[in-house]
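thread: overnight batch results

M.L. [08:02]
morning all. the overnight job finished for the chain we discussed friday. pasting input first so we're all looking at the same thing
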Amino acid sequence: MRFWSKTLWTAAVASLALGGSLQAQEAGLFIAPPTAETRASSPPPLRLAERAATAPLAELGSAPLMERERLAELARWNQSRRLPVKNGFARSLPALVRLEISPSLATRASGPMAGGVLERAADGRLVWGAELRVADAYRVRLHLSGADLPTGTQLWVYGEQESVGPFGLELRGPNGDLWTPSVGGGVVRLEAAFPAGARSGGFLVDQVLELFELDEHGTPITLQTRGTTPPCLVDAQCVSSSTFDVVDLAQRAVALIQFIDGGSGFICSGGLINDQASSGTPYFLTANHCFDNQSAATTLEAFWDFTSATCDGPAPSINSVPRSNGSTLLATNPTSDFTFLRLTSIPSNRVLLGWNANASAVTNGTVLNRISHPMGLKQHFSRNHVDTSALTCTGASRPNFIYETYSPGLGDQGGTFGGSSGSPVIRAGGQVVGQLTGGCGPNPSDGCDYDNADVDGAFSVTFPSISTFLTGGGGNLCIEDADTACLVGNRFKVEVSYQTGPPQNLSGQAMVAPAGTDNSGLFYFFNGDNWEMLLKVLDACSLNNRFWVFYAATTNVGFTVTVTDTQNGTPKTYTNAIGNAALPIQDTNAFATCP
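M.L. [08:03]
and the structure it wrote out:
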């Protein structure tokens, strides 16, 4: 949430109505079928570090003893209502060891290696495992710097309470690093299985992100015990359909999200959004002020069903609830404070919320409902009414933002706090019309002060930026991953395959190097330190009504480049024969698909 004080208030300057006729700008709620898993069943890790009982790769002392000032700084951040809510920080390891895969391992026997243990599996894979310990930790994540992972590499992270994996290149960030999913407790074990025949690759384990459970004020409970929950918060399990008709379904669409930005951990809320085709694509809406970059999006963890079993019952262990890891940033803008993502995967039993992009959907007095995770707590509920006469705050004027006020006589209830940021605001029937930005009023940091207004980024203003995804064509747009570059606003998909001659006779997909821009990408074949190709797609529609494709490759390896205009499915292919020194290509007639 963002907060604005009374001194920043200004008079309302515009109504919510937008000019023009808006048609077919809505979608209904979608209940995903039980089989809608986007990730296959996961094999278990071999649990080498646990089985071999090796000495830890690294040990860190208890944060209350070793990081007292940083803990105090985290508490001050949250208590001063800075946003998003912070729940962790990175800690460097005392000794750095890089795991390196090389041809010499082909004959290497199982045994100690790089602070862990190496073993050759029955299917020929090389498997390495190591253990790290962080005394008294609540949850931890590991940072792998220079994560050069051959295609097919599988990673697991596990502790005494849970195991997560396999995962791999889909969680590697644009800078070539990788933050593992989190596990509970102070003992964390990492396992990496490299495919048979892998000749290069590796990573450096150099940091852990220690996460802390927070009290309702945002103070780590390592510094003080949890106090009482703010009196206005309403457990979502206490809400019936007579108050919010689709409350049970909305709970299955909203997640507590945790992510890493600039070496710190943060929390917000967000929700799944349906498209008009009800394709089941896991689109996800949260706030721009939570994060606005792909590096943070890659580290996202979404925790589902984090709610009590009964009204006012205890929260479940977060170790026990379903989760998603990783996402692709599709669009973000502070104008209506939105960030729009595609999650890498979602568990079964999810619901995708509908939406209404018509400004007329939020006229004065419209009832708006919300499920959120204030301060990272279990799911809570709030309900307000649209108030088009409420005073606005500087930086959040209409029509970009919606104002809700509390009317107890009309059945309004509940409140929001930091951590609720990004939670969808929902009309009856399950249609999203915005997402939470913050509070505006005399005491906006107090979610229980009903003299404040809740402020939401308006979905009607967000919609033009994400309509391509939601109205049927977005499913065909490029989604970037380890071997796919997406250029010119995710319109052009670039893939490169390679082939070598004897004696190796290798083939595979080129990997996208951790660099590039919106119109250019870099690729490598065998080693992340050895980039082979630079490729550009240039918008020359104003010059010759074409998109141009330029590339240069410094190799004699055979390769095939496929560039696809996903707007209409038009492909363009370029090849280089095995043994030929690749020539540069400057195709100024590549795509006659303008605009």
